[in-house]
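Problem: given the chain below (248 residues), write out its structure.
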Amino acid sequence: MANIGIKLKKARQKLGYEYDFITQRAKIHPKVLQVLEDEDFGYFKSTLYLRSFLGKYARFLGLDEDQILSELDMLPPELKAREQGYLKPGSMPGKFVLIFKTAILSLFIVSSIYFIFLGVKKTLAIFIDHDGSDLKIEDVVNVGIRNDGIIEAEDIAAKKSAKEVITLQLTIKASEDCWIQLRADNKKIFDGILKTNQSEIWNAEGEFELWVGEASRLSFILNGRSIGPIGRGIIKGIKITSDGIDLP
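Solution.
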């Protein structure tokens, strides 16, 4: 090994970046970041993909891209990406994988056509065999077919009465560099540094939870309404809902 993965991981940890932050800024999937740091280069479809992602990650971390790619070129061929098949040792040849996928797709298409035909047949039977009372088009709207082929109508009224989900949109702007950690509906969506004059927009269904390193450097817009600064210093566990900001 050329210790490429170790260099990437140390550089990332030195900068204090997590995979989620790098994914948002560099647009590289967390799985790809982990594979590069683990040097599992056989994950990639081809050497071209491997070199592209590796070079992009190295640049983002401030490493010497040419040096990293040069170290990659020095690795034995069996440690690099597997061309023409995206295969791991012991897996089926690419030709058989393609045949298997084609067979599955064909089966799915045939099954879909059959159930669509069965649904049309059952629906027409409603009009043909009706006992004489007027049948309105509303009676067959959203008619579905269960696995046993029996038609059942959806409860449209119940769906209309369902409570609508309130969507929150939060804009955070930094006047100076400031660390923040943000969760949306109990899921972490950002953990990193907002740069000077950087502005980001996030969405949530119920609430946000925010931790900040220096609150006075941030201003907020919630659902189009400006909130402005919320205090000074480190503030943990700030709750943001449709009602506004709730400081701990």
